[in-house]
Design goal:
The protein is α/β, with parallel strands linked by helices. The chain has eleven helices and eleven strands. It binds pyridoxal-5'-phosphate.
């Protein structure tokens, strides 16, 4: 293949550009650049989509997670159990509340291994933050049972999985006490800049979130708690509203088709993402678990195929956390040396998908 197979392609097809430009022009015309009517429209559309009572638009996925934890009054001395495999923002949001992230383990789904959680629970444990890593939902039935048994909050970091469903058709954004989602440009449901959303069914939590979103104020006037500005700008909301209309057809379906093609065409010498019956993965990444990861990555690079390791360093091994986290051996330490994300985005052609599969198979032949 002559051209590079790109891991990501964020360019917007010309035929779609007009739609986004029109949406942005409408915002420029009414001039409510912050908290304009599109913000409320987006919040209403997304609470309907996720089947949550409340949705709040904020400035990023990191802010969404941080505010979710603050709204639950997570603070100094609290311990929050989470996965070791996520973008570092997950652990940092906990740390920014002055709480302590406690890192559990993962299994081959690359999500938190529910069997590794209970032994970590102490009198200080307040919540579990689950991450729907790679675009696949966690085992929420088990997580909800553990949270109920020990009276813990459950916070869903659904940043990578907007649109994912469990076997009962329950959507990402609808699990736990609060859910946080990122809409940064790399995400499956993305804005043209930084953006995030928060979801809950609890009115009290929602009211606290609204206060925290804007400098800890009620009615933009009376400050009752310390907070900064975490508002989403109206231009991003207008883009997200436009994107939502075509998400299924333009993003989710093509990604699912690409993934299915990989499922059938890539050798079983690597472990491919698996799913339960009727479950829906949104393939933020298509992540292989493979032997000789470094050699395979080099080989694919030599064939013009871009790949990524998300993430090379587990959160508990980052300098910020390595001195304080428990050092017992995790399966995650083994798995992280074997994960490789291959291109799966919606702009790939079938030829490119075939070429990637063939190249992987060649490497293992
Ligand atoms: C799992 C996860 N959590 C949180 C974040 C943070 O989101 P943002 O980049 O919008 O701040 C990301 C973004 O990469 C993520 O993948």
């Amino acid at each position: 293949m002559k051209n590079i197979v790109r891991f990501l392609n964020l360019s917007v097809p010309v035929r779609e550009q007009e739609l986004y430009l029109s949406a942005m022009k409408r915002v420029l015309a009414h001039g409510q650049l912050v908290l304009g009517k599109e913000i409320e429209e987006l919040e209403n559309s997304l609470s309907k989509y996720t089947n949550r009572k409340y949705c709040l638009a904020v400035s990023s996925g990191s802010d969404a997670l941080f505010l979710a934890l603050r709204a639950l009054n997570i603070s100094k001395g609290d311990e929050i159990i989470t996965t070791p495999l996520s973008w570092i923002a997950t652990a940092n949001a906990i740390k920014m509340c002055q709480a302590q992230p406690i890192f559990a383990d993962i299994d081959n789904s690359l999500n938190i291994d529910v069997k590794s959680i209970e032994k970590l629970i102490t009198i200080n444990t307040k919540a579990i933050v689950s991450v729907d890593f790679t675009g696949r939902l966690c085992d929420y039935e088990s997580l909800e049972m553990i949270c109920k048994k020990y009276s813990l909050y459950l916070v869903e970091d659904g940043s990578q999985a907007f649109g994912a469903k469990d076997c009962n058709n329950k959507l990402c954004g609808s699990f736990g006490d609060v859910s946080a989602i990122s809409h940064n440009p790399m995400k499956v449901f993305s804005a043209f800049g930084e953006a995030g959303t928060i979801y809950t069914d609890n009115e009290e939590i929602y009211d606290r979130l609204k206060i925290l979103r804007y400098a800890g104020t009620i009615n933009k006037e009376t400050c009752i708690v310390e907070s900064l500005n975490h508002r989403m700008d109206t231009l991003q909301a207008s883009i997200l509203l436009e994107r939502l209309r075509t998400l299924e057809k333009n993003v989710l379906q093509p990604r699912a088709k690409n993934a299915k093609h990989y499922d059938h065409s890539i050798t079983d010498k690597v472990i491919k993402p698996t799913l339960k019956r009727n479950e829906r993965h949104v393939y933020y990444t298509y992540t292989l678990i493979c032997n000789q990861r470094e050699e395979l990555q080099k080989y694919l690079t030599s064939k013009g195929i871009e790949t990524k390791v998300q993430h090379r360093t587990l959160m508990h091994s980052q300098p910020l956390y390595s001195s304080q986290s428990n050092t017992s051996k995790r399966y995650a330490d083994e798995l992280v040396k074997k994960i490789l994300c291959i291109p799966v985005h919606e702009k790939l052609s079938l030829n490119e998908i075939d070429y990637v599969s063939q190249s992987i198979n060649e490497f293992y032949s």
